[in-house]
Design goal:
Catalytic activity: RNA(n) + a ribonucleoside 5'-triphosphate = RNA(n+1) + diphosphate
Number of strands: 14
Distance between the termini: 32 Å
Helix content: 10-25%
CATH superfamily of the largest domain: Nucleic acid-binding proteins
Largest sheet: 5 strands, antiparallel
Order of helices and strands: EHEEEEEEEEEEEEEH
GO molecular function, one term: DNA-directed RNA polymerase activity
CATH class of the largest domain: Mainly Beta
Oligomer: single chain
Keywords: Cytoplasm, DNA-directed RNA polymerase, Nucleotidyltransferase, Transcription, Transferase
Organism: Thermoproteus tenax (strain ATCC 35583 / DSM 2078 / JCM 9277 / NBRC 100435 / Kra 1)
Family: Belongs to the eukaryotic RPB7/RPC8 RNA polymerase subunit family.
Length: 189
């Protein structure tokens, strides 16, 4: 999975109420609030802000009693790649498809991309998909191998934060529920 360690820089605002606190602690709190758990086009999904080095010399802006400091920090990001094959766990199932946890994010697989079959049925009572011909069953908690077919960043309601949207398929050789792949491998001479 494409986890990356990235060095970034930003400015932090230290209000007068935080002047007596260690500068790095103030910076870490602000940077974690601003970055962790959010998606950015150039970074992907930010898992964690790990550390921060803050310039001791700050700037005061007229009319604001706070000081502004340049911070250089390291972040752990998850940047999925289009076409990448990933492993994940089916987290939820609805009639349209399944949500699969891949690392810290969710990806969606439409029901037509779950199996190499023309007709896949949804069983609402068990929240499972069943192949009409092969009777293969895909349920919540199953471990799957899928290929990422699309990555997009969609603006949230407020228009500020971006949501990472990932679409995937399991309709290619070597993809699917891991149990199916093991069974298929065992049948070969």
């Amino acid at each position: 999975m494409p986890f990356r360690l990235v060095e970034a820089e930003d400015y932090i605002r230290v209000p007068p109420s935080d002047f007596n606190k260690p500068l790095e602690d103030v910076a870490l709190g602000q940077l974690r609030s601003k970055y962790e758990g959010k998606s950015f086009r150039d970074l992907g999904y930010v898992v964690a802000v790990l550390d921060a080095k803050v310039n001791r010399e700050g700037v005061i802006i007229f009319g604001d009693g706070a000081t502004y400091h340049k911070a250089i920090f390291h972040i752990l990001t998850f940047m999925p790649l289009d076409g990448e094959v990933v492993h994940g766990i089916v987290e939820s199932a609805r009639e349209v498809g399944v949500m699969v946890r891949i690392g810290p994010v969710l990806g969606f697989i439409n029901k037509i991309h779950l199996m190499d079959e023309p007709n896949v049925l949804f069983d609402a009572s068990t929240k499972s998909f069943i192949g009409e011909r092969t009777k293969k069953k895909l349920s919540i908690g199953d471990v799957v191998r899928a290929r990422i077919t699309g990555i997009s960043y969609v603006a949230q309601k407020e228009g500020v934060d971006l949501a990472l949207r990932i679409t995937m398929t399991m309709r290619m050789p070597g993809l699917g529920k891991l149990e199916w792949l093991k069974e298929k491998k065992g049948k070969k001479p």
